Amino acid sequence: EGVAACHRAGVVHRDLKPSNLLVGAGGEVKIADFGAGKVLRRRLDPCASYVGTAAYMSPERFDPEAYSGDYDPYAADVWSLGVAILELYRGHFPLLPEGQRPDWAALMCAICFGEAPEPPAAASEEFRDFVARCLEKKAGRRASVAELLEHPFVAERDAAGAQHALAALVAEAEQRDQ
């Protein structure tokens, strides 16, 4: 919903990643650090593609020529969101083997030439499909944020229950840190 609000206002974040998703004590999630963000006056204003964190950049941001210059900053935000969500689910960066330290070449190869990562088979079919729609390699085929909000993984969720569960996890983590 936060990314959708940004996009409706013509704002692209361009650096969505777990460390820019803040969770409050009540379980609410806020998007932070708009330092790489941009306000677009038109749907597809020219927008520098090499800003943000390389690990979360979409394939077309790394190599616009290979994707026919098909750089849509809104679609790039969706890719980044998908990588971030999958990382939060898995507990490690999903585009490289667990424990591998990412470098520029490994990231570019994984993002541009590797298969899109998939959630573990234990994940729900709705979650698996949601992530697949975010991590579609071709920007023109990637789901929009509006489409993702209508996806069963989001549309059929118990928002209050999810926020309560997240608040409980935050409280548990705070107790563990004390």
List the helices and strands and how they pair.
Layout: H1 2-8, E1 11-12, E2 21-23, E3 29-31, E4 38-39, H2 59-62, H3 73-90, H4 104-112, H5 125-134, H6 145-150, H7 152-155, H8 159-177
Antiparallel strand pairs: 1-4, 2-3
Helix pairs in contact: 3-5
Identify the notable features of this structure and list them briefly.
178 residues, mainly alpha, two-stranded antiparallel sheet, 8 helices, 4 strands, globular
What is the number of helices? 8
What is the global morphology? globular
Q: In which order are the strands of the major sheet placed?
A: 1-4
Query: Between the first and last Cα atoms, what is the distance in angstroms?
Result: 32 Å
Contiguous uncertain segments of 5+ residues: none
Which structural category fits the helices and strands? mainly alpha
Instruction: Evaluate the radius of gyration.
Output: 16 Å
Binned strand content? 5-15%
State mean pLDDT (0 to 100 scale): 86
Q: Order of helices and strands, N to C?
A: HEEEEHHHHHHH
Helix content: 40-55%
- Summarize the biggest pleated sheet: 2 strands, antiparallel
The total strand number stands at: 4
Structural write-up:
This protein is mainly alpha-helical. Helices cover 43% and strands 6% of the residues. It is built from eight helices and four strands; from the N terminus they run αββββααααααα. The chain has a two-stranded antiparallel ribbon with strand order 1-4. A two-stranded antiparallel sheet has the order 2-3. Helix 3 runs antiparallel to helix 5. The longest helix is centred in the last third of the chain and has 19 residues, at 159-177. The two termini are 32 Å apart. The model has no long low-confidence stretch (mean pLDDT 86).
